[in-house]
Amino acid sequence: MKQKEILVAGGAGFVGSHLCRRLLDDGHKVICIDNLHTGQLNNIESLLKYPGYTFIKHDIIYPFKYDGHLNEIYNLACPASPKDYQAQPIQTIKTSVIGTMNLLNLAENNHCTFLQASTSEVYGDAEIHPQSENYWGNVNPIGIRACYDEGKRCAESLCMDYHRQFGTKVKIIRIFNTYGPNMRVDDGRVISNFIVQALRGDDITIYGDGRQTRSFQYIDDLLSGISKMMQTSDDFTGPVNIGNPDEYSILELAEMILQLTNSPSKLETHPMPIDDPKCRRPDISLATTMLNGWKPKIGLEEGLKGTIEYFKEIHKPISA
Ligand code: NAD
Ligand code: UDP
Fold this sequence. Notes:
Strand order of the largest sheet: 3-2-1-4-5-6-11
Structural class: alpha/beta
Bound molecules: nicotinamide-adenine-dinucleotide, uridine-5'-diphosphate
Strand content: 15-25%
Number of helices: 10
Mean pLDDT: 97
Helix content: 25-40%
Number of strands: 13
């Protein structure tokens, strides 16, 4: 395979660090830019040994200058956990809007392919179930999740406008809840929260009645979807849903994690966050058709086992 020069924005985060490793293992040169807002240096420590890897601390809300010639840009830069993006909403909007525009300009100057990590959040509190790409969504534009949801929606608009106006090669994927090693202990998302709470023997924080649903995808399945999306022809922009259609209630998730960790933790009810979507499940028929038969392969129980092992390593439970 021909060696490519690839920029990964947000490469010190959960998904980005896995993507960088995969690209390096495939023999490519990777330039990771990240402002370390929600990323972690320990995610990239093991990548520094690859001769083809460069890390540059940079905030994408400012233009990034690069002297070489890029073949691909992956834009993963954006806090993804509600706790993180709601803590700095204006920075979140700037990242999705100004940051994405800066990277699209870079893609345009390099005549390279640009992949945008969009999200199932563009569907908001969906009234159509499961969600397919032709559903335009139900987002509260002035709510506390809007900095993320509307920022990502605007980023999709920008991608399509660059494509139509300048012919930029863009690819948009709408990622559904993804989990795995390299998530932060204090990330605030449901799987990291529940695993850490279960390992510590703390109460499991169920928001609302726990009957809201999500469809959880293991990181490896997302990576194979990203790779197949990049291999599609230049005229295929997406958006494409990348997620696992197996849907679970939050209570079912909690029970599974308690059982897999053999934890004595008890369930504790907390108020439901504002605008929390009631259900989410991807329709992946477009992905399966366009991405060469792509389908997630790793079920929730198997993926959770791998993730639990990771958290056990980095966070020694009290009982260990
Ligand atoms: P993450 O928070 O672990 O990673 C995001 C990374 O982007 C971090 O390293 C952070 O420091 C960096 N970053 C944030 N703002 C930046 C800026 N202005 N300039 C440079 N770097 C910046 O989140 P993640 O789960 O790895 O998500 C990666 C991408 O995938 C995000 O764009 C997110 O919206 C998207 N996504 C993720 C999921 C999921 O379930 N993990 C679901 C849907 C979409
Ligand atoms: N959630 C929960 N307890 C937690 C964290 C999250 O019950 O400690 C719920 C949350 O209300 C939501 C779901 O789990 O319904 C998924 O939340 P997460 O923050 O992981 O991602 P979201 O899909 O909301 O962006």
